[in-house]
């Protein structure tokens, strides 16, 4: 379907200061600075805004700008608009040396930033969480934590409920909750927001959006990459904490939440919180039936031989690189509807999607599929694809054209974004960064959401630890351990094949 709809024009931001603590790191170079560049090219960031990169090395503004120029060179090479604006963008960048673990240098940095009344100041903590408390205290100590300040924090917010509390307490001692923006970049993805638009902007779906009409929901976040150079870091985390606690649960919340009264940030976050609190607890009593954890062995991904997780780590480990969970939201809307979640590394394909499978028609008038002439009626499915190829497809049964009786086939109604709206799909960080500057926390996690998510996750971890068994092995390049297939097939269902 091609509508040739246009992206609405973006409105310019009032001048602001954005400080990236960890301004030379992977996140800054690969995500934040390219996102800011795109927003600048689209006219949203004017010449009076300032962007500071902070790290411990000594380097000049000029050296920092050249480093950023190298990092974004592929973007500039691919788009003449970017190439034309690049020098102007680099002119907004500054670099300051500051050890975030120490007390030195903060007064000078505060003096340089100055205090222009009404000017928004954003501090992006693109550093490990062990530095958060000191950064918050130092900002407070030099008078940079006041009303116009917003702080952005990335995952991981803790490794369990208790450590998340420590981080949130440290931030909460200095900042009001409304100043804290906890990023889950999945929420900034266009399709994720489109899920809310589809559900609440159309009369079609919402009456069907309940146990009476929905058979089950699948949420898959599959990666082809392994842990590469980050094995030591990843080994302390694992798929449950790294992906399920934040991304998958947030997606589940958006599918399952009740209609909020408005788009106000707290209206939506209140509804998401209720979903998290309604999740059926999983603990030592039922983790064996409702969860599967796996760890990849050597195999081949995309035709390339890849080593196993333990070879990459160089040590023994029970950390899971794959997890599948049968979750349930215990409320009137969803009673009895399973939400199958799965995520893993070194899987067959990089793909994130939500599949809502409706119930079958109660009676087929098209004959018996076993008689050799009729086809079975597949249930309708709404497939929300987050990556790659963001888009939405609605699978419906149709008659195969031509003579030869009523032969039925599943056909997808395609709402592909690229085709419908044309142009480049902005990265999630572009929207999220501008939302912080604008002061719109709708797509960020509130503290009680983080706490509630950990409250559901912690007993699963505890059950796994108490069971003392190793994760199930799976070959790199497949779809995880066979136990994950059994988890859903036991219920007479199958994981959605890539028919997207
Ligand atoms: P990284 O590549 O290791 O970069 C860390 C940055 O922090 C560097 O600029 C480093 O510079 C700086 N830094 C470290 N200690 C410092 C200190 N004491 N004082 C001042 N600067 C310091 O890490 P990253 O991948 O960018 O990740 C940063 C944080 O974001 C981590 O908590 C990570 O879990 C999280 N995150 C990252 C991604 C991603 O895509 N990379 C995604 C989600 C979340 P110097 O060492 O030169 O000081």
TrEMBL record:
Its EC number is 1.1.1.49. GO terms for biological process: glucose metabolic process; pentose-phosphate shunt, oxidative branch. This is Glucose-6-phosphate 1-dehydrogenase. Keywords: Carbohydrate metabolism, Glucose metabolism, NADP, Oxidoreductase. GO terms for cellular component: cytosol. Residues 19-194 form the Glucose-6-phosphate dehydrogenase NAD-binding domain. SUPFAM superfamilies: Glyceraldehyde-3-phosphate dehydrogenase-like, C-terminal domain, NAD(P)-binding Rossmann-fold domains. PROSITE patterns: G6P_DEHYDROGENASE (PS00069). Catalyzes the oxidation of glucose 6-phosphate to 6-phosphogluconolactone. The active site is at 247 (proton acceptor).
């Amino acid at each position: 379907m091609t509508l040739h709809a246009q992206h609405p024009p973006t409105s310019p931001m009032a001048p602001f200061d954005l400080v990236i603590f960890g301004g030379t790191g992977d996140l800054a170079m690969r995500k934040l600075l390219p996102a800011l560049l795109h927003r600048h090219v689209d006219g949203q960031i004017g010449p009076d805004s300032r962007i500071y990169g902070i790290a411990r090395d000594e380097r000049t503004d000029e050296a920092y700008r050249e480093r950023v120029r190298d990092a974004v060179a592929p973007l500039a090479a691919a788009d003449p608009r970017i190439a034309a604006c690049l020098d102007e963008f680099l002119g907004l960048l500054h670099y300051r040396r500051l050890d975030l673990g120490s007390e030195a240098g903060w007064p000078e940095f505060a003096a340089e930033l100055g205090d222009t009344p009404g000017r928004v100041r954003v501090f992006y903590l693109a550093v490990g969480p062990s530095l958060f408390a000191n950064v918050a205290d130092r900002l407070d100590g030099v008078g940079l934590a006041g009303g116009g300040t917003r702080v952005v924090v990335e995952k991981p917010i803790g490794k369990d409920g208790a450590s998340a509390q420590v981080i949130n307490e440290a931030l909460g001692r200095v900042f009001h909750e409304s100043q804290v923006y906890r990023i889950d970049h999945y929420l900034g993805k266009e399709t994720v927001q489109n899920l809310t638009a589809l559900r609440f902007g159309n009369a079609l779906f919402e009456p069907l959006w309940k146990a009476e009409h929905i058979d089950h929901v699948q949420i898959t976040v599959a990666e082809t990459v392994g842990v590469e150079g980050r094995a030591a870091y990843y080994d302390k985390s694992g798929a449950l904490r790294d992906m399920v606690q934040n991304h998958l649960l947030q997606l589940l919340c958006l599918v399952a939440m009740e209609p909020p009264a408005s788009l106000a940030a707290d209206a939506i976050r209140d509804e998401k919180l209720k979903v998290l609190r309604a999740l059926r607890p999983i603990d030592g009593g039922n983790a064996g039936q409702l969860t599967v954890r796996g760890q990849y062995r050597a195999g081949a991904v995309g035709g390339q031989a890849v080593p196993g997780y333990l070879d990459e780590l160089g040590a023994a480990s029970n950390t899971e690189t794959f997890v599948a969970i049968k979750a349930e939201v215990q409320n009137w809307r969803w009673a009895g509807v399973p939400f199958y979640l799965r995520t893993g590394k070194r899987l067959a394909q990089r793909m994130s999607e939500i599949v809502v499978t409706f119930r079958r028609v109660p009676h087929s008038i098209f004959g018996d599929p076993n008689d050799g002439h009729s086809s079975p009626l597949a249930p309708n499915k709404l497939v929300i694809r987050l990556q790659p190829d963001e888009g939405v497809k609605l699978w419906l049964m149709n008659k195969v054209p031509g003579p030869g009786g009523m032969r039925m086939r599943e056909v997808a109604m395609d709402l592909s974004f690229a085709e419908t709206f044309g142009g480049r799909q902005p990265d999630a960080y572009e929207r999220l960064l501008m939302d912080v500057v604008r002061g719109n926390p709708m797509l960020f996690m509130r503290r009680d959401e983080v706490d509630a998510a950990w409250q559901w996750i912690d007993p699963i971890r505890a059950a796994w630890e108490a069971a003392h068994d190793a994760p199930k092995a799976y070959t790199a390049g497949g779809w995880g351990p066979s136990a994950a297939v059994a988890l859903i097939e036991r219920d007479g269902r199958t994981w959605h094949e890539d028919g997207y």
